[in-house]
Amino acid sequence: MKINENYLQLQDSYLFSTIAKKVVDYTKANKDAQVIRLGIGDVTRPLVPTVVKAMEKAVLEMGDALTFKGYGEEQGYAFLRQAVAVYYAKKNIFLDKDEIFISDGAKSDVGNLLDIMAKENTVLIPNPVYPVYVDTNIMQGRKIQYMNGNAQNNFLPLPDEKVSADIIYLCSPNNPTGAVYNKDQLKQWVDYALAQEAIILFDAAYEVFIGEDSLPSSIYQIPRAKECAIELCSLSKTAGFTGTRCGYTVVPKQLIRQGIQLNKLWLRRQTTKFNGVPYVVQRGAEAVFSAEGLEECSENIAYYMENASLIAQTLDELGIWYTGGRNAPYIWLKCPDGMSSWEYFDYLLENLSLVGTPGAGFGANGEGYFRLTAFGKREDVVEAMKRLKKSVDKK
Ligand code: PLP
């Protein structure tokens, strides 16, 4: 047996383990320090009551011979796909429920979708970005080209006609930069993809954080995007499902390459390699899209966005350059005084007992930048911003 040697090309990810080790060492040496973590990408608010109630009911159904469910449809129960279709219809996007595939989260589908695309395809990936796009392509041995996010383009790279690509990754609102493409910018990407006969994998995991109506929360708000884009979405941040696991992927029937509907290929892939998301979880997900569920979840989103704006306000006051913090739960700041990402990490930990995420961990273009997240507790955010202001005043 020969191993898949592409795995040997992967870089070990030391980012979060290095952070954890540095924090442990610091707390051992500073027993009284009140460490605040603003680096986590996980939510802290619990599931909302409407979702909990729906899941409790579903558990009882599973325990009753009359309502027990065995295997479900691999692509998700019709009730949930219908609920997702209604959610999209509110954005004036009309999907057939067969174009919606329920997943156990966006991460799985980000990797699995590559099964239906040839190895020879060239991939275009923004830098910095969510590292899963890069690693899943390295695992399959694909050629990767990077597009540069930087302060000049506000970390929103646009297409370069001179570069050819087959698979394009876009993430908006972006992890880690919090940057959000506007309609005109996304149209440029759709036009480019159509001209190249490429496919956009549009990661909309953070769409719910978009508060400004003029910004697109789905790529299908751009004309002809159904002919060139697959959209991935997740309830992880929308409804606190990081530990519950549910998302959805849209593969429009109009998306055709070499005369073949990608929707058919994806259905074939899923029915072969996936046995669906648990019934109980899908009932919980359905409840997210109910009027009560949406209302309750929006309170949690508002809580996180208030955190984001507290951080953004502080950076404004301190004159620190950043992207995000509006329409996104991430704040991506330029490290002050020319510090590198890890120098700033050490500075914040050792002087303010504050933990964030070094931007260098998201790609070479992240060097010199730093990610803060809005997913923490309010009192921690308030205290962290107090410490940050004080430290600058002291200088
Ligand atoms: N896409 C992006 C951009 C993310 O940041 C994350 C999680 O952090 C995911 C996808 C994964 O989401 P899920 O929990 O649905 O697998």
Question: Can you describe this structure?
Answer:
With about 400 residues, the chain is α/β, with parallel strands linked by helices. It has two domains: about 5-45 and about 295-395, Alpha-Beta Complex (Aspartate Aminotransferase, domain 1), CATH 3.90.1150; about 50-290, 3-Layer(aba) Sandwich (Aspartate Aminotransferase, domain 2). It is built from eleven helices and 15 strands. It has helices spanning about 15-30, 50-60, 80-90, 105-110, 130-140, 185-195, 260-275, 280-290, 290-320, 340-350, 380-395, and strands at about 35, 100-105, 120-125, 145-150, 165-170, 200-205, 230-235, 245-250, 255, 260, 320-325, 330-335, 355, 355-360, 370-375. The chain has a seven-stranded mixed β-sheet, with helices on both faces. The protein has a four-stranded antiparallel β-sheet with strand order 11-12-15-14. Strands 1-13 form a two-stranded parallel ribbon. Helix 6 links the parallel strand 5 (about 165-170) and strand 6. The radius of gyration is 22 Å and the shape is globular. About 45% of the residues are buried. Bound molecules: pyridoxal-5'-phosphate. Pyridoxal-5'-phosphate binds next to helix 4.
